[in-house]
Amino acid sequence: MEVQLTNRQQHILWATIRHYIATAEPVGSKVLVEEYDLGVSSATIRNVMGALEKSGLLYQPHTSAGRIPSDSGYRIYVDQLITPSLRDATRTETLAKEVELSLQQRLHWEDWSLEALIHGAAQILATLSGCISLITMPQTSTALVRHLQLLQIEAGRIMLILVTDGYETHSKVMDLPPGKENLQLDAEVIDRELQIVSNFLNSHLRGRSLLEIANLNWSELDQEFQLYGEFLKSSVAELSRRTQAPTTTQIMVRGVTEVLRQPEFSQLQQVKTIMQLLEEEQDKLCQLIFDEPETEDASKSRVTVRIGAENPLEPIRTCSLISSTYRRGSVPIGSVGVLGPTRLDYESAIAVVAAAADYLSEAFS
Prior knowledge:
alpha+beta; Arc Repressor Mutant, subunit A; Beta-Lactamase; Enolase-like, domain 1; 3 domains; 5-stranded antiparallel sheet; 3-stranded antiparallel sheet; Heat-inducible transcription repressor HrcA; WHTH_transcript_rep_HrcA_IDD; DNA binding; stress response; HrcA_C
């Protein structure tokens, strides 16, 4: 929506939104005179607020009440009024550093499983933002092979173990390839051969994506391993396809209890629809927060802000959703987001989402 505002209108809209975010109470001209250095009279502020209401940026919940921002008002605020001249830039920068420091101190990438890492990041994000945090698990189709191992588990049966660069582990149990069981080799000989094959596979496949090895031209493998060729081709390809299937829990959700205590969520039916979306329809939410606008510099994290009715999902059309993708290099592999009432601290929420996305991008890269 194209709305041309004067400097005075911008400043009064900014002050109105800031006060409403802090208090959840309709804002009148008197309180703006008392708490903000606007340099104009109460009557002038009332006239400006009336003009902003006619433009659809503010509205009155009751005839005798003050005014509160509309979705359009918040959109102007996010797009035009969150600037260094109209916000405490130091506070926002400090919060972003606090997020980064908390993630670094409390999360230990080398020691944690992938799920534990995402769980911890989601909890920190919820605590610092005061919103519901949403972090998708990384898409495994972009995962890279870190290690492959073949192990003998009993006579004639072996296990193929695959570890991705995200420290996810997948395994497949199978029979020895045809002909091998007839050689009557003892267990030690088979273990040595499996280790040789494991070393060979790692030298050829480490660092390749799962999608790439699923479609690998296995005829290029060394002739001495022809006995294992077709057998390994089908086994590794099947394991790769299996790891690309979506997991049951696609989004790590934290911080629900505190957010639902906000006055905006006082109606039980509204709470039920949001909870149903979070618990039973995560696929819809996953698609939404992973859908990022194109940007000229794909290497930089981009924060997307969807306000109120801009959200296509009905249960959250009274909420704001702020999200960004985290990446491996320039490839998006997952999303970070916060969900809260439209009356949220946008500066802080944008800062913590961007900081969390940058941290996860660095960890996965």
